[in-house]
Amino acid sequence: MPTAEQMQILWNLSDSVLYPEAVALIRRLVNEEECLPLPASQVIRLLNIASASSYTDLMRFMRHQRERDWPDAKKDIPLFYTELDKYFTTFKNKRLREHFPLMQADKPAKEAGQEVDQLMALLARDFIQHLVTENALLAVKKAAERGKRR
Amino acid sequence: MKSAEESRAISKDRQIALEVNNQAENFYEDAVQLGDHAAYVLKARHRSQLTGLENLAESAWKVSDVLDYVKRQTARFIYQRQTWPQEAQNQAGGTDRDASATLGFGERLLSYLEKNLEKRCDEICRRLEIKADSDEGRKQRRRVHLLLIRQFIRQMVIEYEFRVSFETENAKKGEA
Question: What ranges do the domains of chain A cover?
């Protein structure tokens, strides 16, 4: 379990780093790379996995989704999971220690690994939460734009 | 006896409360405008949209929890995306100076909570020398922004209740 101090850092991170970066990621995919917003079925599955599973299980799910053979109409979905995977992997390898400098101090490797995974699971949950709410808003805007064009 | 550190923390808390109250005086008019917009689009029958928001804001640990909630409700319900036409503003006796009046209610509220209140939060943090270069500073900053959001939402909900009370009264008169 993360300590009270770690939870405070996590909440700070969620507001000042994860929220703006989740919004920027999904806006880039939808507005600049012209991907379709993530469909509701994917959003529900992703939220369920993120809120109930370990970080390892979440990554396994995302990689599975990325590597599935998707029909042409859904070709944006694996791109979305590739971006998400890239974000979490970079965060874990390069940024986590910067935000949690006291983590893993004097801990055996197995325990230290568990601590990293627990923190990453919480971070990923928040990031996904921010991302899917922005995705919902973008989906509504895109639908309204399509309606106007008709 | 309180330690010097405890006394400093209490004093800082008081300063924050005072600054947030001062800012609340300054944004009162904006809260009224958004409360009127809410009354126009939500009417009395969607009151739960605002009570839900108020409850969430009171118990949230993070600013982003409140922003996510507003986004979710905006995406889910068409009335949350309704604008407040000039004609309706005139009937309500209000004139909206805010350029974002062309936005739907949810987006307008989101923009206010996120951008406008962040600027006010910056001002308070600058005055109280709360710096974002430490975890403690970032925690204080998050708290200031949340306190501003709570104050703003409280004021907006009061205005909304005031406006919809006329609607309920008129409906009763119509029935009688």
Answer: 4-149
Structure-derived torsion over alpha carbons of residues B14, B18, B21, B23, reported in degrees to the nearest 10: -130
How far is the C-alpha of B77 from the C-alpha of A136, rounded, in Å? 11
Q: Is B64 on the interface with A (CB under 8 A)?
A: yes
Spatial distance between the Cα atoms of B125 and B127, rounded to a whole number of angstroms: 5
pLDDT in tens, B62-73: 999 999 999 999
Residue among A5, A14, A15, A131 with most chain B CBs within 10 A, to mutate = A15
Residue A100, sorted as left (phi over 0), alpha (psi -120 to 50) or beta, turns out to be beta
Gap between the Cα atoms of B152 and B121, Å rounded: 13
Residue type, B58: E
- ipTM, two decimals, is 0.93
Nearest to B139 by CA among B155, B123, B125: B125
pLDDT in tens, A98-132: 888 877 667 888 888 899 999 999 999 999 999 99
Reference B151, options B113, B115, B99, B101; nearest CA is B113
